[in-house]
Amino acid sequence: SEVTTRRRLALLQTGALEPPKNPGPLKQRRFSEDYRRDSKHLAVTDRPVSLSALRVTLKIRGVKLLEGVVAV
C-alpha cells in the first residue's frame, strides 16, 4: 500500500533499512587482479612478453630520458 511504500522510503533515507548491496560480476570478485581477458582468453597477467620487445621499449624510454636531460 501507499503507507507501506512511504514507510520504506523513510527508512531508506534514515539508513535504517539498507538496500541490497551489489557485489558486481562474479568473475570480477573471484579473480580481482586478472578478471579482464584478451582476445585469446588469456588472463592479462599471463600474457607472454618477449625480451626483445622489452629491450626496444627500454631503449626508447632511455633515449627520451636523455633528450629530456640534454634539453634542460
What does this entry look like structurally?
- The protein has one domain (2-71).
- 54% of the residues lie in helices and 0% in strands.
- The model has no long low-confidence stretch (mean pLDDT 61).
- By secondary structure, it is mostly helical.
- It is built from three helices and no strands.
- The protein is rod-shaped.
- It has helices spanning 2-14, 26-30, 51-71.
- The termini are far apart.
- Residues 1-29 are annotated as: Disordered.
Rg from alpha-carbon coordinates: 26 Å
Distance between the termini: 73 Å
Count of DSSP-assigned helices: 3
Q: What is the chain-wise order of helices and strands?
A: HHH
The chain-level structural class is mainly alpha
Give the integer mean of the pLDDT values.
Answer: 61
Total of domains: 1
Major sheet attributes? none
Principal-axis shape: rod-shaped
| Low-confidence spans | none
Number of beta-strand segments: 0
Summary of the model, kept short:
The chain has 72 residues and is mainly α. Helices cover 54% and strands 0% of the residues. The chain starts with a helix and ends with a helix.
